[in-house]
Amino acid sequence: MIIIINMRISLRELFSGLNDNYFPCNNNADLFGFAEDEPCVRRYEQTDIDFLNAYFSGEFNASLLKGQARRLFDISFNAFDIFLHAWLSELPVEKETINYGRKIIAVSQTANTQEQKRNTAENITANRTDSDTLAVLNAAGKTGQEAHRMMGLLRFSPNKDGEFIARCEPDHFILPSLGEYFTSRFGETSWSIIDIKRSQCLRRIPPKPAKTCIIDKTLIKMSETNDEWEDLWKHYHKIINNEDRNNPDLQRQFMPKRYWKYLPEK
């Protein structure tokens, strides 16, 4: 199954790009398979979703990686994690991300020990004077920042079956990275986070682990929850609000206006 949304290359293709002299491309197209006047899109393959579910499960097995992707992971988990989060940003930095990974692998080949390889990778990751590294760090940082924001900005309400549902439209593809946090937060309670923009859902039905899956528009519509809970939250927010301490600029800094659509109190 392949889903077309607002990104470019799949994770499988990004890993393939770590091989020397290889970039995903088609005839009469740029390095990433698209003519210059074509809109930027990404193909989400089911294998990408399966890999992300495994990676963010807390029980990741490196044997799922092959070739240069496995080599990058073995050199430095931190460098690999940054590489992956840059891809999750959905920003057009695929070329820079591949170059970043290649540089780490190439330079580390001269190191004799695992510690030397890791130090080499960390030195490259810290080098913000390199344009590829800077682009990758900025993209990965935006992904991590938004994931952290969503931990506090998501609003859950129970549906008729008692499952707690939250809806959002994040800028970046952050759903898989939220699984561990909300699993800990909800315990043995069932919950789902629906990404409206991408038609994807992160869901946990205990005792099974949280998993991201692709859903259709009908299921998104069916996921709408009871407004009574939103009314209760609005009432609570109104009661605890102190008008004398309102600071709209600071509020927008922590709760950007683009997220307000799914914040009942706004």
Task: Name the descriptors.
globular; 266 residues; alpha+beta; two-stranded antiparallel sheet; disordered N terminus; single chain
Taken in chain order, the helices and strands follow as EHEHHHHHHEEHEEEHHH
Give the termini distance in whole angstroms: 38 Å
The overall average pLDDT, rounded, is: 81
Shape: globular
Number of helices: 11
Number of domains: 2
**Rg result:** 21 Å
Note the beta-strand portion.
Answer: 5-15%
Largest sheet: 5 strands, mixed
- Helix fraction by DSSP (H/I, runs of at least 4): 40-55%
Counting DSSP E segments of at least 2 residues, the number of strands comes to 7
Structural class: alpha+beta
Q: Unreliable runs, pLDDT <50, ≥5 residues?
A: 1-7, 25-41
The largest sheet has its strands arranged as 3-4-5-6-7
